[in-house]
Amino acid sequence: GCADTAEQTADPVSLLVAGTPDELAAYRALAAAYEQATPGARVTLIEASTAKDLMTKVSTSIAGNSPPDLFLINYRNYGQFAVKGALAPVTARLAASASLHEQDFYPQAMGAFRWQGEQMCLPQNISSLAVYYNRTLFKQYEVAEPAAGWHWNDLVATAQALTRDAGGRTVRAGEPETAGTPVAVHGLGIAPELIRMAPLIWSNGGDIVDDPNAPTRLTLDTPQAREVMQDFLELPRIGVVPSDVEVEAQDYEARFAAGKLAMFVSSRRVTTAFRAITGFEWDVAPLPQYRAPANILHSDAYCMTRTSANQDAAWRFLEYALSDPGATLMAKTGRTVPSRISVATSAAFLSPGTPPGRSQIFLDTIPALRPVPTIATWPEIEDATGKVLENAFFHGDPLDKVIRDLDAATRTVFERGAASR
Amino acid sequence: MNRDRRQLVLMLAPYLAGLALLVLLPATATMTMAFTHTDLIATSEFIGLDNFAELARDPAVHAAVGNSLSYLAYSVPLRLVLAVGLALLLHRRTRGAGTARAAVLLPGAVPELAYGLMWLWLLNPLQGPVNQLLLLGGENGRTMFGTLPPQWLTDPEDARAGIVLMSLFTIGETFVIVLTARLALPPEAYEIAELEGARAGQVLRRVTLPLLAPVLAVLVLRDTVASLQASFIPALVVTNGGPPPYATTYLSLVIYQEAFEYLRYGYAAAVAALTLILTVMAVLIQWRLLRRWAYHGLAGMGTHRLWG
Amino acid sequence: MTPPGRAPAPHRRRRAYGAAAVTVIFLSPLLLLLTGSLREPGQPPVIAPPLIPDSVGTAAYDQAIHEGDLVRAAANSMIVAAVGVPLSLLVASLAGFALTQLPRRVTATVIALSMLAMTVPATALLLPRFVLFRTLHLTDTLVPLIAPALIATSPLYPVIYYLAFRAIPADSYDLCRLADLTPMQTWRRMALPQVRPVTAGLAALTFVLTWSNVLDPMVYLYDRAVFTLPLALRALAAMDPHNQPVFLAAAVLTTLPALLVIGVAQHRFLHAYGPEGAP
Amino acid sequence: MTAGLILRGVHLTRGTIPALRGIDLTVARGELLVVLGPSGAGKSSLLRAVAGLDRITAGTVAIGGRDVTALRPGQRNVSMVFQSYSLLPHLTVADNIAFGHRIRGADRRAAADRAAAAAASVGCADLLARRPHQLSGGERQRVALARALVREPDVFLLDEPLAHLDAALRTSMRTEIRAVHDRLGTTTVHVTHDQSEAMALGDRIAVLRDGRIEQLGTPDEVWHRPRTRYVASFVGAPGMNLLPADGPLRPPGTAAGAELGVRPEHVTVIAAGSTTDGAIGEVERVEVLGEDALVHLRLGAHAVVARVPARTRPAPGDRVTVHVADEHLHAFDAITGERIPLPAEAATR
Amino acid sequence: MTAGLILRGVHLTRGTIPALRGIDLTVARGELLVVLGPSGAGKSSLLRAVAGLDRITAGTVAIGGRDVTALRPGQRNVSMVFQSYSLLPHLTVADNIAFGHRIRGADRRAAADRAAAAAASVGCADLLARRPHQLSGGERQRVALARALVREPDVFLLDEPLAHLDAALRTSMRTEIRAVHDRLGTTTVHVTHDQSEAMALGDRIAVLRDGRIEQLGTPDEVWHRPRTRYVASFVGAPGMNLLPADGPLRPPGTAAGAELGVRPEHVTVIAAGSTTDGAIGEVERVEVLGEDALVHLRLGAHAVVARVPARTRPAPGDRVTVHVADEHLHAFDAITGERIPLPAEAATR
Ligand SMILES: Nc1ncnc2c1ncn2[C@@H]1O[C@H](COP(=O)(O)OP(=O)(O)OP(=O)(O)O)[C@@H](O)[C@H]1O
Ligand SMILES: Nc1ncnc2c1ncn2[C@@H]1O[C@H](COP(=O)(O)OP(=O)(O)OP(=O)(O)O)[C@@H](O)[C@H]1O
Ligand SMILES: [Mg+2]
Ligand SMILES: [Mg+2]
Question: Domain named ABC transporter: which ranges (chains D, E) (predicted)?
């Protein structure tokens, strides 16, 4: 809080971001637009290529006492910074701001970055899971396209109907006449990860942790969670998802792009990549549900570092970045769903005429969005569960063992997370 | 004597300064953090041996130690044998030798990410050239040896073998060093062997290897050291530490993840310390084995200290 | 000119075949990168590019140079290499030479320290070094990337120089002492010229290491203006899969200077004194 | 009986320099041939050609009746002492000597025993455990010799094996070489610069010059009937004095364009005035070599060296009468350098 | 005038071997001292001690009156030919010769000119552009010599600089060394195994044995008055015959425990029976060395070598009468090996 407010042309605001070249280009455009809009202001972009590089840079620079003023981070990673007091809360600034108001943003996104009553960061986007599907395949095999409110079982049935061999015949695992027939098109692609299962468990009325505010363990042993897990881990046995060897040979994203995957559960991120597809038509559908609609929040936010010497200037930049023109610039990449309601509902995001045609579903699902718990050790929990789940998914471990393993692998991590708050 | 001694010290000084400033000092700093809880952001508190106690229980560390040691056991000898073989094959002026030398060096120059990607293609379980080659001689989807083709990316054993295979293509450094050492060997030694009718194997065993012994010893030690902290980037690209849970998780990966992804710097420092201890142990064991063998040879004809 | 080799013809032919085989084995995988880079960007990703490209285009190269800002990155990398590599060789050879002459105890200690230095995982050095350079206000400059030249890029190289200088006959050193050469002069006039193959080899290795150093720039460089090639490449690697050819094109471009240096250096390996390259 | 070693039209180029240019040479089985010649004449090259270490550019080499031109050195079964010793730096003296045997698969003990015996025969018995760089020059040379002699090859090739040994040792090593040679009956080619070694050791002597053989004959022949002026001046220490036929010494019946040669040993120097039979010269310099002295004389425009007993040597500046008996004169064609029979010589034929 | 080189109580250990054990030696300024000695005696070590290449363990070295014991080699201003040449493989012959000058900052052209001149003086003018590995053994040695002679040091140290040269070249190189030495007046220590070289070249000769100086004297003294039995037998090719005083030769007035020595040159061999004055022996072996022949005789239980003119040599198996004039006999203490004056000798004193 020792910023020199009077001096507008003081040090430039440094902003650390990660992303693909087109995203970085968008940030550059944003910075340029800001500098043009605000005479005398300067923004220094610190570019990292991946989220991991960004983490390395953030941590070394904070430890080296030269943190950036702002950095962009996913809320699943932000917990470590929030918990350890590395961030400067923006609650007061937001309240005092003339141009930014809390209600400009989706509350689900804002909530995810609130920590102990303080708004720690301001969300830049709000994404969620959707089912990407190959409409051409649906048409070719005369399968009904997914509709809002569809059940998990519908998804499985659809996937079964779309799992075909090279001759276009359906292939069913376990049926003797098709045994050993190589599958040319798989019905479904979904990564065996906790963050893919979580919305389904929520939808089924369960939860993944005992206490979302102060989690101490996974609660996958509840009947609701068990049912979802059971269904999920059954997918390979039914034969609608590619095997591990097949996934390693060609991952889901490439598979979908190559027309060999009828449906693919993913976030908004892959949209840009899929827009390059020319061979077939594709669209997005809502995530299937069990009892009630539920989805998981994917969001990145601008965070201000506590030791930043330039917080006022940084805030001024934030105000611009999250304003209509600023957010529109970022929305043009198509990678994310803007957190600013006005922009999300504008053509800048919905972009009629470019796939996916049903972009609206990303907005429709927002009320059903839930975040994962904010805990310092969340990345570790994801990694640890990912390993167990991947094994279970591809090698068909018994459910009880999977749940036990997941618990064993995460208990201490939760403990450490709890200890550090 | 003084002038010379002073100059010698000056000649050594930049390196020593670099060593102290860029390695020893930072390493010490990190190692002291092994006894703390450091998260790079806020806290740093002394916690004694807690980190070590924890890593003794950490399955990732267990797996990484095992993986790193098994990588060491396979890759070090294989790499050395291959590098020495290639250096001896290519040390003469023959047609194509120059191109071949460059070819051996080149994989090391390919950017790591691209190199990893390339191996991802090569080891592709279904359509990868490596498996296609293995399938050439066999039938019914079996290799020429009658086995099923290796599942490089999904089977833990095969994945580890794949990583070793990858390491065999980045022997440029060892290769070049052996090559230059070989070029410096006295031709007379080979004339003697030739006159005595020594067969290629005998020349290798009785002349070349003993003469190269000091260089080879250093290279063995270095490769041991390097293999315990094998650059994890290609492995990361290809196998991402898996197949799960930790089939190709090596110590270096654990350190990086703990330090910069999970922000558990103190714990990472403890793993680094463990790596250091393991390496020093491996090096000491090898040095005991190598010392007598490496004493003479290239170094044997060496100069005595002059300005000492 | 090739002097008559001693190996009889069949031997030499076998060696030539061996060399050809080595070339094929080591280069053919890399061909995948080349053909991959020649594909048109924006098309669906392939499982693996074919060894022989179906359609050839350089669009990926244009895009790489553009989007990756490769020209500027290459210039930065060049600066680092142009300063770092000679400096590194200088440090390595000076230290290696001094080791041959200093008392055995000093030598043993320094070599042990070098070994220990090699033992320290790179990741363990990252943070303290960052703090160090930060304190010196050197982050976001190319200095931290050149700095490893002070440890000869790899502590192995002074040891290699040490062994090479040790193998020079004692007589040659005696001669220099008689001529009242200082250690420095002895190094420059007698020792260094005699180990030219080592210098050439280590030059190639140092260049490759410096050129492809990615961990250091990742931590020390913030400003895109000082990004080096590996960083530019890393950015391109984050692109969507259908733009893989762009990344590959950049990778190929990044490799080319290294290939050039390796080619030149390997030419020098041959240039030793004596019938077989030995003094 | 086939010849031990035959070279036919052997040419050899080292780098760009023609080191051997047409060598025809037959060495009988069991013969010890000494090769003499000035520095750079191609002596070492000759041995290397026989050993196969350098590929010859033309000609054939046969050892023991077997054409070895195309064979590798190891297949030729020769044993060689290199001019520069060439010891393996990483092996002890014992291992160096035993190297050949070990390569041939000899048992370690047996090889060591033979090595020890060979080392003893060259007086290096107490150096067995040392390494080459711990030896003096002469010791290295003796080890190299031991390494060659320990084997039983078809041909010994010895390149100045005694150059760094003192006179006493050289004499005894010479005896050792001869003994080994006689015991094994091995064809031997021995390069030396030491005239007495050549004379004492050689069954025949080949004088090499510029890659060609200038004369091949018994020591006696080479000494007493040098085939060319070059051989005459080269053999002997110092070699023959050469004077024009119309110079101070003028034997009867010499062709006009000839050159006369006379060995220093045959130049008699008498205090001037005591007899008039001979030319008058002036002593320029006197070198005493133990029992003998070399007297450097000036006879008009010509320099002549005489070897006289040290006790009766003149002093520098003395004027002396120089006399040479006719039978000690040699004549050579001034242009071709070929020997021309003199009347005195013709008569003794 | 101060002495050119003084060694006092010099001890030197190489590895663990005491190579020099107490050398006291004074070489006058401008003197050329030849060092003789058996292989391994410490000759090279002596030169290295003077040059400062090896640190001496005791004693002092002074050059030109200046104590250099503590100085490094470069400050001693000596010029040395190494036994193994020690040419730098990466330099051409010209650059090798010019090495010292270039280091001292001489102008490139001037250094090259001097190098060319020096090369010409050792007959290597046409090799200037070659590198050492392209030279024959003798050529290398000459280049090494040229490199040493091109400088003007306080002391020349020459370690067998002519070992690989043929007799003719050796004679002319010997002259060259002497000429350079005389021109510059430089103190020179010259190691050689060649007796005639030692005799012809040396102002004085030091005979080294086992790291000690056995005798130091003019060539004449060493030859005619060997101080010990060892020197007697070592100098000469072959050296003196040594027989017990109560053996076949029995001069008047010899002590009982003495040994008698006689040079082969002084053993007269006459067909048996023509005179009875002398001992009767049998010819075992005859070696012809050009003009002379070595006759190996057996006198009862003793072996004796005689050097006789080749023309009058006996045949092996001949029985001959052996005669030695009394004045040619030397006597040595059988135990200490020290010389004992004989009556004949004492008389001439
Ligand atoms: N580097 C060394 N290490 C150990 N001993 C050595 C070394 N060099 C020489 N010697 C020993 O020191 C003694 C003297 O050696 P030096 O070289 O002075 O002999 P030298 O008289 O020159 O003999 P030569 O005529 O054979 O050259 C010898 O016994 C030799 O074996
Ligand atoms: N590696 C080489 N490259 C080029 N020329 C060479 C090489 N080795 C020798 N020569 C030349 O070949 C000629 C013959 O050399 P060689 O070694 O046979 O002479 P040599 O008779 O043994 O002489 P020396 O008595 O000096 O040893 C010489 O003129 C020499 O300069
Ligand atoms: Mg020779
Ligand atoms: Mg010596």
Answer: 5-235
Touch between A and D (at least 3 CB pairs under 8 Å): no
Q: Answer whether C5's CB lies under 8 Å from B91's CB.
A: no
* Domains assigned to chain B: 48-112+159-299 (1.10.3720.10)
Q: How many domains does chain C have?
A: 1
Which class does domain E231-347 fall in? mainly beta
Q: pLDDT tens string for chain E (349 positions)?
A: 578 899 999 999 988 889 999 999 999 999 999 999 999 999 999 999 999 999 999 999 999 999 999 998 888 999 999 988 889 988 999 999 998 887 777 788 888 899 999 999 998 999 999 999 899 999 999 999 999 988 889 999 999 999 889 888 888 898 889 888 888 899 999 999 888 888 888 999 999 999 999 999 999 899 889 999 999 988 887 888 988 877 777 666 666 678 889 999 888 888 776 666 678 888 988 888 877 888 999 988 888 999 988 888 888 888 888 888 888 888 888 888 888 887 655 544 4
First CA to last CA across chain A, in angstroms? Answer: 23
Which residue in C has a C-alpha nearest to residue D71's C-alpha?
C8
- Chains A, C: CB contacts under 8 A, how many? 86
* Shortest distance, CA C206 to any CA of chain E (angstroms): 24
Task: Tell me how far apart the alpha carbons of residues A57 and C216 are, in angstroms, rounded to a whole number.
Answer: 11
Domain span holding position C254: 39-273
Cβ-based contacts of C174 with chain B (< 8 Å): 306
* Residues of chain A with C-beta less than 8 angstroms from the C-beta of C224: 45, 47
pLDDT tens column, A388-416: 998 889 888 889 999 999 999 999 999 98
Across the interface, of B26, B99, B259, the residue whose CB is closest to C23 is B99
The closest CB to that of A21, out of C127, C134, C239, belongs to C239
**b/e for C107-141, b at 16 or more Cβ within 10 A?**
beebbebbbbbbbbbbbbbbbbbbbbbbeeeebbe
User: What's the CA-to-centroid distance between D43 and ligand 2, angstroms?
Assistant: 8
Could you report how far apart the first and last alpha carbons of chain B are, in Å? 8
End-to-end CA distance of chain D: 30
Is residue C22 one of the residues assigned to a domain? no
Neighbours of chain E (3+ CB pairs under 8 A): C, D
Question: Do E13 and E19 contact (CB within 8 A), yes or no?
Answer: yes
Q: What is the Cα–Cα distance from D286 to B187, expressed in whole angstroms?
A: 46
**CA triplet B16, B21, B25: central angle to 5 degrees?**
110
Contact D216, D204 (CB under 8 A): yes
> Which of D85, D136, D142, D143 gets mutated to test ligand 1 (max ligand atoms within 8 A of its CB)?
D136
Looking up residue C177, the CATH number of its domain turns out to be 1.10.3720.10
Average pLDDT over residues C210-221: 88
Residue C46 lies in a domain: yes
Question: Which residues of chain B lie closer than 8 angstroms to A394, CB-CB?
Answer: 154
Measured distance CA(C108)–CA(A40) in Å, rounded: 60
Put simply, the answer to whether D55 touches C6 (Cβ < 8 Å) is yes
Class of domain E3-230: alpha beta
Domain definitions of chain D by residue range: 3-230, 231-347
Q: What is the pLDDT of residue C3?
A: 37
- Structural domain includes residue C21: no
- How remote is the CA of residue A313 from the centroid of ligand 2, in Å? 82
* Residues by chain with Cβ below 5 Å of ion ligand 4: D 136-137; E 44, 83
Cα C99 to its chain centre, rounded Å, is: 23
- Mutual orientation of helices A51-63 and A75-83 as an angle, nearest 10°? 10
The Cα E72–Cα B101 span in angstroms is 44
Q: Are strands D32-36 and D292-299 parallel, antiparallel or unpaired?
A: unpaired
